[in-house]
Amino acid sequence: MTEEAIGAVELEGLPLFRRGKVRDTFALDGRLLMVATDRISAFDCVLPDLIPGKGRLLTALARHWFQRTAELVPNHLLPDDPGLLPAPLWERVAGRSMLVRRAERIDVECVVRGRLAGSGWEEYQLQGTLAGESLPPGLGFGAELDRPRFTPATKSDSGHDQNISRAQLRELVGGETADLLEATSLRLYRAGAGGYLRAGFVLVDTKFEFGWIDGVLTLIDELLTPDSSRLWEVGSAEASPGFDKQPVRDWLLASGWNRQPPAPRLPQELISETRRRYQEVLTRTLSSSS
């Protein structure tokens, strides 16, 4: 039986805290209930089609990585509390929700790149730099960097995130916080890259979000999912579609879309293939970690 695709969530009695591109978050007493829908976004635009079951896959992966990295950095994940909701509502969101502590969010995307792809590749082609810092000439798409590079961006709930340099980040949040964000992001990237390598994937790049809880830097939002990461099959790299959103991005660009809403409808075969690849990431990751 095909799973019902969920595009938006309403929970009677719980006020909506934020409706993001993918997650609907509800306010509790000092806590938040984050519900991952089946929406998918690209180029900062929510697409008109849903990927059935995607929210459950994202939630399972995020939970896995939060638990695997808890010793590296505190995170906001709390144990489930089914008693928060009437049984019919809990059944609707169970498996696609996370109960989390509320944090004072740092409005920065903490991106780490192990290879040249995405906006990092675009910057390198134009300027020979990555996050404003020079790279050796002659690197190709997908080239492995000499070391993982921290390339922050400003965070925007609406509109486009903007890549910034590490120096600009220091101006934005202060030197001490900038150094802490960079060091923590690099530790998390290395842990994720090692875990995904065991599952047969290359972690090309990924992004993290952080906030403050009781004065402690805390990992929030999601973690190391195909929505927030580029994942390639080991050994095939750019020669095959990624296990992430990149095939959707590629189809949208090939369609001639100008990256402004409304976005075009996705073909059914792309919807099915995207779900299959997300499922494969989860299956292989959990299997390699057992």
Keywords summarizing the entry:
7-stranded antiparallel sheet; alpha+beta; globular; 4-stranded antiparallel sheet; 7 helices; single chain; 290 residues; 15 strands; D-amino Acid Aminotransferase, Chain A, domain 1
List the helices and strands and how they pair.
Elements: E1 16-19, E2 23-27, E3 31-36, E4 39-42, E5 45-50, H1 54-68, H2 87-93, E6 97-101, E7 104-105, E8 108-115, H3 118-127, E9 129-130, E10 133-134, E11 144-150, E12 153-154, H4 166-173, H5 175-198, E13 201-213, E14 216-220, E15 229-233, H6 246-254, H7 268-289
Antiparallel strand pairs: 1-2, 2-3, 3-6, 4-5, 7-13, 8-11, 8-12, 8-13, 9-10, 13-14, 13-15
Helix pairs in contact: 1-7, 4-5
Q: How many extended strands?
A: 15
Q: What Rg, in angstroms, do the CA atoms define?
A: 19 Å
- Overall form: globular
Judging by the overall fold, what is the CATH architecture of the domain at 104-249?
A: 2-Layer Sandwich
Low-confidence stretches: none
Q: Roughly how much helix do the residues carry, as a percent range?
A: 25-40%
Indicate the CATH class of the domain at 104-249: Alpha Beta
Round the mean pLDDT to the nearest integer and report it: 94
- Determine the CATH topology of the domain at 104-249: D-amino Acid Aminotransferase, Chain A, domain 1
Structural class designation = alpha+beta
State the end-to-end distance: 28 Å
Give me the number of helical elements.
7
CATH homologous superfamily label of the domain at 104-249? ATP-grasp fold, B domain
Which percent range describes the beta-strand content?
25-35%
User: How would a crystallographer describe the biggest sheet?
Assistant: 7 strands, antiparallel
Oligomer: single chain
Order of helices and strands: EEEEEHHEEEHEEEEHHEEEHH
